[in-house]
């Protein structure tokens, strides 16, 4: 086996975390059609192949248009359960030991699907995975940034009876034109409630949006963060605050955030001392789950064994799991890489 193949094998075997994953982005076309049929909902595309052929994106908005269409077949608690369970089965088979997943309540509330149907279905699957395999989890409710702050506040009100099931809040959807500062007050309210806070920033939006996420929102983590590399002071600030970046290589490629995987900046992030992690974002749409993201990086950016170990460790230290569990997984990693 040459070194690259050996590293890919190691990346498959190592215990992994997923810190940036939209559950609605795990909707595989086959399952989408099955649930559409079960719910008697019409999809715009008439076959799995026709739908897959549409997965050609030139930017984030191209993808989002399809993503919202796809999720429109989710109506009942069992749909959210089945979607989440299918994803968790895959992650278990890939040695993922801990997941922190986003869901987009407003993407479902707008279609008349109650908050309870969504959160109960997703959470029940997460609990079942924990019971069956010991896979730990956090659940993050994400606000849609193309909607108003008022709508985010309404969503927070609806979420209040379910806060014991929710660990954090995020900010996603169309980035440019919707800076973090638009949601200042609602994030402050979330923090008051004891929720962790993260935000997509610097995927397509400028470094200024990453500054706002850090200084105005006070995020615990940054989702993507690619464009932070354009600003040296910002890089220093992220390091000073020890903030983890949840980087998504195949997503970056599919949404043209990078033009080619050989140009992906994750190696540079590591060399600058940034806490980069590897994540899959919307794997059903972007052509790969956790192991595919690692394999793609290993094969095309020449990351070495030391860098691979650092990425895996960052995924553990940057997660919101308890300290004891972190230590356990870090020890496992050290042993595997020794
Ligand atoms: O990658 C993403 N960026 C912004 N919003 C999203 N919603 C799902 N995936 C994404
Ligand atoms: Zn995302």
From TrEMBL:
<dbReference type="GO" id="GO:0006146">
    <property type="term" value="P:adenine catabolic process"/>
</dbReference>
<keyword id="KW-0479">Metal-binding</keyword>
<comment type="similarity">
    <text>Belongs to the metallo-dependent hydrolases superfamily. Adenosine and AMP deaminases family. Adenine deaminase type 2 subfamily.</text>
</comment>
<dbReference type="InterPro" id="IPR028892">
    <property type="entry name" value="ADE"/>
</dbReference>
<feature type="site" description="Important for catalytic activity">
    <location>
        <position position="224"/>
    </location>
</feature>
<dbReference type="Pfam" id="PF00962">
    <property type="entry name" value="A_deaminase"/>
</dbReference>
<feature type="binding site">
    <location>
        <position position="282"/>
    </location>
    <ligand>
        <name>substrate</name>
    </ligand>
</feature>
<protein>
    <recommendedName>
        <fullName>Adenine deaminase</fullName>
        <ecNumber>3.5.4.2</ecNumber>
    </recommendedName>
</protein>
<comment type="function">
    <text>Catalyzes the hydrolytic deamination of adenine to hypoxanthine. Plays an important role in the purine salvage pathway and in nitrogen catabolism.</text>
</comment>
<dbReference type="GO" id="GO:0009117">
    <property type="term" value="P:nucleotide metabolic process"/>
</dbReference>
<feature type="active site" description="Proton donor">
    <location>
        <position position="203"/>
    </location>
</feature>
<dbReference type="GO" id="GO:0043103">
    <property type="term" value="P:hypoxanthine salvage"/>
</dbReference>
<keyword id="KW-0378">Hydrolase</keyword>
<feature type="binding site">
    <location>
        <position position="281"/>
    </location>
    <ligand>
        <name>Zn(2+)</name>
    </ligand>
</feature>
<dbReference type="GO" id="GO:0000034">
    <property type="term" value="F:adenine deaminase activity"/>
</dbReference>
<dbReference type="GO" id="GO:0008270">
    <property type="term" value="F:zinc ion binding"/>
</dbReference>
<dbReference type="InterPro" id="IPR032466">
    <property type="entry name" value="Metal_Hydrolase"/>
</dbReference>
<dbReference type="GO" id="GO:0005829">
    <property type="term" value="C:cytosol"/>
</dbReference>
<keyword id="KW-0862">Zinc</keyword>
<feature type="binding site">
    <location>
        <position position="20"/>
    </location>
    <ligand>
        <name>Zn(2+)</name>
    </ligand>
</feature>
<dbReference type="InterPro" id="IPR001365">
    <property type="entry name" value="A_deaminase_dom"/>
</dbReference>
<feature type="binding site">
    <location>
        <position position="22"/>
    </location>
    <ligand>
        <name>Zn(2+)</name>
    </ligand>
</feature>
<keyword id="KW-0546">Nucleotide metabolism</keyword>
<feature type="binding site">
    <location>
        <position position="200"/>
    </location>
    <ligand>
        <name>Zn(2+)</name>
    </ligand>
</feature>
<dbReference type="InterPro" id="IPR006330">
    <property type="entry name" value="Ado/ade_deaminase"/>
</dbReference>
<feature type="domain" description="Adenosine deaminase">
    <location>
        <begin position="15"/>
        <end position="333"/>
    </location>
</feature>
């Amino acid at each position: 086996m040459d070194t690259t193949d050996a590293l890919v094998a190691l990346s498959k075997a190592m215990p992994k975390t997923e810190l940036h994953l939209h559950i609605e982005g795990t909707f595989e076309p086959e399952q989408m059609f099955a649930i559409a049929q079960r719910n008697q909902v019409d999809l715009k595309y008439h076959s799995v192949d026709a739908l897959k052929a549409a997965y050609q994106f030139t930017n984030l908005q191209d993808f989002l248009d399809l993503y919202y269409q796809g999720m429109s077949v989710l109506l009942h608690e069992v749909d959210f359960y089945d979607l989440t369970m299918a994803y968790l089965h895959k992650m278990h088979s890939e040695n993922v030991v801990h997941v922190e997943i986003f869901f987009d309540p407003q993407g479902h509330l707008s279609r008349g699907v109650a908050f309870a149907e969504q959160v109960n279905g997703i959470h029940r699957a997460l609990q079942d995975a924990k019971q069956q395999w010991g896979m730990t989890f956090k659940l993050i409710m994400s606000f849609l940034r193309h909607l108003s702050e008022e709508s985010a506040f309404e969503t927070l009100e609806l979420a209040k009876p379910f806060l014991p099931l929710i660990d954090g809040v995020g900010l996603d959807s169309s980035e440019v034109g919707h800076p973090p500062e638009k949601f200042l007050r609602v994030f402050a309210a979330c923090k008051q409630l004891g929720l962790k806070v993260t935000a997509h920033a610097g995927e397509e939006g400028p470094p200024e949006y990453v500054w706002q996420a850090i200084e105005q929102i006070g995020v615990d983590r940054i989702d993507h963060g690619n464009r932070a590399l354009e600003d040296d002071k910002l890089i220093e600030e992220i390091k000073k605050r020890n903030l983890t970046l949840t980087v998504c290589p195949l997503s970056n490629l599919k949404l043209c955030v990078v033009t080619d995987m050989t140009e992906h900046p994750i190696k540079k992030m590591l060399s600058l001392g940034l806490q980069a992690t590897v994540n899959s974002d919307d794997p059903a749409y972007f052509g790969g789950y956790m192991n595919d993201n690692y394999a793609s990086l290993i094969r095309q950016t020449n990351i070495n064994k030391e860098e691979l170990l650092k990425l895996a460790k960052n995924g553990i230290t940057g997660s919101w799991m308890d300290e004891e569990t972190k230590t356990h997984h870090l020890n496992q990693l050290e042993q595997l890489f020794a």
